[in-house]
């Protein structure tokens, strides 16, 4: 798994939290009593859940000590656990198993998603949001740069990136277990101050595996080369800002 920096991630807290709010709003449950937030990061998603269901007992789970430390500091009223969400099992069935922009880093979705669905109590739900833009230009440019003549010696093999399947995959994986499913995609068009802001965005997420593979001394040069490519791919609009499309997939599976 990549290393994480909560302060870098939270530079774009509003943009990263908006899909979480929209997922939470669409969950059709009455009053869930026990909720777990898998891959809670610095707690911004858990705070959304606490606002929506203030009477619920909510636990945030993340494998990054840095993220959990930030969550504990900013939201001391909640319960926080450092654990691997890929192998997490609920000690008791949850009314809501929630995950915002985390499960893309976990492998074997054919096994993991049904396992998580089984952690939901009867009448409960599994609700997941994941990015669905691994083939978007910003990600393509990461791979192309790593394979370029200037950098290929630093990357004898490409780092393991996150991945997400097509919506039909999740339907087929979950429909036999669940009562009903709600699936949709949304492409957000983020208005960024400039192209460098896209680099800063990915320094907190998609670039992590590439940066982790490099010595610290080489990381600034890789980021500069990547920034030059991004500036060409995402031209400034008339006011100098840059439009940054970002596709996300949402899945809500309701337990029988």
Task: Describe the structure concisely.
This protein is of the alpha/beta class and 256 residues long.
Verbal overview:
There is one protein chain. The protein is α/β, with parallel strands linked by helices and 256 residues long. The chain has one domain (6-255): Vaccinia Virus protein VP39 (Rossmann fold, 3-Layer(aba) Sandwich). Helix content is 36%, strand content 25%. The protein is built from 10 helices and 7 strands. It has a 7-stranded mixed beta sheet with strand order 3-2-1-4-5-7-6, with helices on both faces. Strand 1, helix 3 (44-52) and strand 2 form a beta-alpha-beta unit. It is globular, with a radius of gyration of 19 Å. The mean pLDDT is 94.
Features:
alpha/beta, globular, 256 residues, single chain, seven-stranded mixed beta sheet, Rossmann fold, 25% strand
Q: Helical residue percent?
A: 25-40%
CATH topology: Rossmann fold
Number of helices: 10
Oligomer: single chain
**Would you identify the CATH H-level superfamily?**
Vaccinia Virus protein VP39
Task: Give the class from helix and strand content and strand pairing.
Answer: alpha/beta
Q: What is the CATH class name? A: Alpha Beta
Q: Please write the string of helix (H) and strand (E) elements.
A: HHEHEHEEHEHHEHHHE
| Total individual domains | 1
Morphology: globular
- Unreliable spans are none
At CATH's second level, what is the architecture?
3-Layer(aba) Sandwich
Largest sheet: 7 strands, mixed
Terminal residue distance: 33 Å
Q: What value does the Rg take, in angstroms?
A: 19 Å
Strand content: 15-25%
Mean pLDDT: 94
**Order of neighbouring strands in the sheet with most strands:** 3-2-1-4-5-7-6
